Amino acid sequence: MKIGFIGLGAMGHPIAVNLRRSGHQLHLYDVLPQATGELSADSVSWVDTPARAAEGAEVVFTCLPGPAEVEAVATADDGLLHSMNKGSAWFDFTTNAPQLMRSLHDKFAARGIDVLDAPISGGPKGAASRQLAIWVGGNKKVFEKFSHLLRELGDEPIHVGPIGSGCIVKLVHNSASFAVQSTIVEPFTMGVKAGIDPTVLLRALRQGTTGRARTFDRLAEQFLTGDYDPPSFALRLAYKDMNLALALAEACGVPMRMVEMATEDMAAALARGWGDRDARVALTLQEERADVYMKSPSKVKPGAVEAI
After folding, report:
1. Mean pLDDT, the chain, whole residue set
2. The pLDDT value given to residue 43
3. In the chain, at which residue ranges do the beta strands (DSSP E only) sit?
């Protein structure tokens, strides 16, 4: 296929390399000079504007730092809007703003061009090894048309909804990832300060219930189905454990802001008489605050991506 590719940074460069290895004809653009390496073959040409990268392309991929760069590449005089062919498609791999992609989708649709947001997850190593999640929002038929191409780039391309949905999934993933890291670090520093060797502590934690699970798996066990009875771990016992941990943290002089907030929610749930229900019932307080309620089928099981 004739492909335009814009943005040859840490993620874009290895993705483009994989496209070249698959035999596609690439027209590449980046604002910075690149070490071409494997991107200097006969099937690859470097151009001086986004418009030239998109000329005659069946599909265009962008992999850029953020919304400002995407909007510029899309709408500038030498941008995609004025150069892509009617009937072609643009997949944006950028971690982007949903509202921007919806706006661009409408502008390009008026010219007969399909726009899909398709943020990726897996890091540079995943981009090189083709072990990428690709979360695609937009026209499902267009996704299916190009799904064979996406599978050349990642092992987990999935259509997640209308335009903007890919961005939403990526923002959920990244904000949860960084918040989880912050939360884990609090008790981990407490354990080290209380006398456990960090290497030993990490190895031990990996053997616990949470340590053996993928990050999001435990949401499917009771929270997504709204089933907190009978409990797997009663709220009153979890609250006791949290207070024991906070007491140890205080004795060690370790602040635990994230753990304190979780404990406060548990206390509020106990005040409602939920002590003998599963501890995850305290998570429903966030549903109330956000005014959104989970109604997911009980068939969703931990690790069963295909069931979601």
Report:
1. 93
2. 87
3. 2-6, 25-29, 44-46, 59-62, 89-92, 114-117, 120-121, 133-137, 156-161
> Start-end ranges of CATH 1.10.1040.10 in the chain?
170-307
Q: Enumerate the CATH 3.40.50.720 domain ranges in the chain, comma separated.
A: 2-162
Q: What angle do CA 105, 101, 165 make, to 5 degrees?
A: 105
Just give the CATH number of 170-307: 1.10.1040.10
User: For the segment 136-191, what is each residue's pLDDT rounded down to a tens digit?
Assistant: 999 999 999 999 999 999 998 999 999 999 999 999 999 999 999 999 999 999 99
Report how far apart, in Å, the C-alpha atoms of 207 and of each of 113, 150, 186, 203 are: 50, 35, 19, 7
State pLDDT tens for residues 42-101.
Answer: 889 999 999 999 999 999 999 999 999 999 999 999 999 999 999 999 999 999 999 999
The two tokens of residue 131 are 């072990």
191: Cα within 13 Å, side-chain hemisphere: 15
Opening angle at CA 78, ends 73 and 84, nearest 5? 75
Q: Name which of 101, 94, 97, 96 is nearest 11 in CA terms.
A: 94
* 7, HSE (Cβ side, Cα atoms, 13 Å): 21
Q: Which architecture characterizes domain 2-162 according to CATH? A: 3-Layer(aba) Sandwich (3.40)
* 226 within 8 A of 257, measured Cβ to Cβ: no
Q: How far is CA 2 from the centre of its chain?
A: 28
Cβ partners under 8 Å of residue 161, min gap 6:
137, 168
Chain segment 257-301, per-residue pLDDT in tens = 999 999 999 999 999 999 999 999 999 999 999 999 876 554 444
